[in-house]
Amino acid sequence: MIEKVEVVNGAIPLTETEPRQQWVDEWSFQLYVKVSAGGRTGWGEILPSAGSTREPYAALVNRLAPAIQGKDESEIGDLWNLMRRLTFSGGYGVTTGAISGIDIALWDLKAQKAGRSLSELLGGKHRRVGRYASLSRYPRAADAAAAVGRLLDQGYASIKLHQSGKDSLETIGLVRKALGFGFDLAADLNCAFPYPKALDFMKKVHSKELKWAEEPVWPPDDFDSLKKLNRVGPVAAGENFFSFFEFERVMEMDALSLYQPDIAKIGGVTPALDIIKLAKKHGARLAFHNRPDNGWVSTIGSAHLASALSPRALVETPPNEVPREYFSFQGSMDKTTITPGGKGLGVAPLGSIPTSTGSKMLVFHER
Question: What structural domains and CATH numbers belong to the chain?
Answer without folding.
Answer: 2-115 (3.30.390.10), 119-349 (3.20.20.120)
